[in-house]
Amino acid sequence: MHLHILGICGTFMGGLAALAREAGHRVTGCDANVYPPMSTQLEALGIELIEGFGAEQLEFKPDVFVIGNVVTRGERFPLMEAILDAGLPYVSGPQWLADHVLQGRHVLAVAGTHGKTTTTSMLAWILEHAGLKPGFLVGGVPQNFGVSARLGQGPSAAGPSQGARAPSGGSAVPAGPSVGASSPFVIEADEYDTAFFDKRSKFVHYRPRTAILNNLEHDHADIFPDLAAIETQFHHLVRTVPASGRLVVNAREEALQRVIARGCWSEVQRFGPKKEEPGALRARGEPQAFDVLRGSLKVARVEWHLFGEHNQLNALAAIAAAEHVGVSPEQSAAALSEFENVRRRMELRGEVKREGGSIKVYDDFAHHPTAIRTTINGLRRRIAPAERILAIFEPRSNTMKLGTMKAQLPWALEEADLAFCNQQGLTWDAKEALAPMGAQAVVGADVDALVAAIVRAAKPGDHLLCMSNGGFGGIHDKLLQSLTARA
Questions:
Q1: To 10 degrees, the CA torsion angle through 50, 52, 57, 63?
Q2: Which of the 8 DSSP states describes residue 203?
Q3: 53 within a domain of the structure (yes/no)
Q4: Is 221 within the bounds of a domain?
Q5: Is the pLDDT of residue 15 over 80?
Q6: Which of the two residues, 349 and 206, has the higher pLDDT score?
Q7: Domain with 28 in it
Q8: CA distance 202 to 193
Q9: Would 462 be classed as within a structural domain?
Q10: 151 and 62 in a common domain
């Protein structure tokens, strides 16, 4: 089969392209932003890329056009208009994935406003460590694998369910897939809409047997008017999980409790309650070394290099989901001790040595106010009390560009010693939004102005935390170069 993918350089569509190529299909694609690193990754797979959405691409004559949700109707996308005029076959990315990759497999889907990429990567690594050789599609690059997507294989001859144990007070843990069966598939389940012709959330197409509902807040304000609208989409996901399936639900999230209260037909495994709760998984101890408890019974211990309570909760979710395919909590904990995290999750990009201490520059994907606050808090708990955090952020997501959550930014940034915001591309006034922070907040007209202000303020021992869901204008390298030149 020949696929021509519109919007191929997006994280999801690029992963789909890699899976289709691995499955033996011919893959070509186009996008308005064909540039590294996605372009080089795809070209290395033998995928021909075209800049733009010109109608002349009909000459490729593929068997099907796969449409990304970046594509809309109108003059910006003449290729899409030509496909419709010619009556040619087309399908959304999630639907193609469901029909050609996920069908017949045990799908483990990871949904939530925050932590999807990290938790999906944890879960895929746990299953890999246990010998299940899973397929996966992640919205980032898990460092344990070095790729964002793969088809996976059947389990090893030894079988994946060795060492699995029954939950205390519950029925036996379901055994893993039988030897020779297709391996499980772990997927990051995004609630964003599917395509211009299918306004359901992407995750409705995946039909998971195991679904993690990690957390739920208002986001994607460009398509969801309020939190209730997102809760409805999450309940659509709940409706697709079979009775023999499992929902792994964060016990701390009121929005998720409302979703489950609408109707639930599957086993529910709760995690993360602050107090003992029969059957629920919870953590006892610091985020970098903690016991995993089921009720009051210790079932595993996790010791790793990740920090922050959010990652502790992500780990509990991954452990609970892996248990549904026969991986015991002990096995999961052993795997997490070797988990290397995901690129752009508190990734140290470099440091500049100074007399009195170095200045470190980090890159992180945080872009929602809650994620920004959580990320800063995690770093604060890791560093020495006298060291400073300079939080540097770019309101780049559609929700942040609309200014829907601008009033939450002072709350999100309050644990930083200084906060620096990029005004470029915003239709609302960042200075006004950050006024409650007073001199603690600095707004730059563009990235270069921001770099100049940060370099003037930076001192030995500082931690420069750059947060954006985009490239942030190469700010990380610019900071390192300017700091080095100043040194």
A1: 70
A2: G
A3: yes
A4: yes
A5: yes
A6: 206
A7: 2-93
A8: 6
A9: yes
A10: no
Q: Could you tell me the pTM of the whole model?
A: 0.76
Q: Which stretches of 170-308 are DSSP H helices?
A: 227-240, 254-261
Residue 119 has, within 13 A of its CA and on its CB side, a CA count of 33
pLDDT at 167 over 80: no
Residue 192 shares a structural domain with residue 82: no
**Rounded CA gap, 97 and 20, in Å?**
9
Using DSSP, state whether 87 is helix, strand or coil: coil
Q: What is the spatial distance between Cα 440 and Cα 413, in angstroms, rounded to a whole number?
A: 10
CB 322 within 8 A of CB 426: no
Instruction: Write the DSSP string, 250-267.
Output: ETT-HHHHHHHHT---SE
Residues 119-141: tens digit of each pLDDT: 999 999 999 999 999 999 998 78
Are 66 and 85 in a shared domain? yes
Q: Binning pLDDT at 50, 70 and 90, where does residue 156 land?
A: very low
pLDDT of 81 reads 97
Q: Are residues 381 and 362 in the same domain?
A: yes
Q: Three-state DSSP class for 431? A: helix
Query: What pLDDT digit, counting tens, does each position of 405-438 carry?
Result: 788 888 888 889 999 988 888 888 888 888 888 9
Nearest CA among 435, 442, 477 for reference residue 457: 442
The predicted-structure confidence for 244-278, as pLDDT tens digits, reads as follows: 999 999 999 999 999 999 999 999 999 999 888 99
d(CA 45, CA 4): 15
Extended strands (E) in 142-239: 149-150, 185-188, 193-195, 198-201, 210-213
Structure tokens at 476: 């990380």
**Cα–Cα distances in angstroms (integers) from residue 177 to residues 79, 267, 380, 463, in the given order:** 43, 19, 42, 46
C-beta separation of 136 from 236 below 8 A: no
- Provide the number of structural domains found in the chain: 3
pLDDT level of residue 177 (50, 70, 90 thresholds): very low
Nearest-angstrom CA–CA distance, 216 and 112:
6
In this structure, what are the phi and psi dihedrals at residue 191, rounded to the nearest 5 degrees? -90, -5
Task: Judge contact between 67 and 94, C-beta under 8 A.
Answer: no
Name the most confidently modeled range: 38-52, 137-151, 311-325: 311-325
Looking at the structure, do residues 56 and 177 belong to the same domain, yes or no? Answer: no
Are residues 87 and 111 located together in one domain of the fold? no
Does residue 47 belong to any structural domain of this protein? yes
Based on the domain organization, do 128 and 89 belong to the same domain?
no
| 289-303 pLDDT per residue, tens | 999 999 899 999 999
Cis before 155 (ω within 30): no
| Residues found in the chain | 487
CATH number at residue 197: 3.40.1190.10
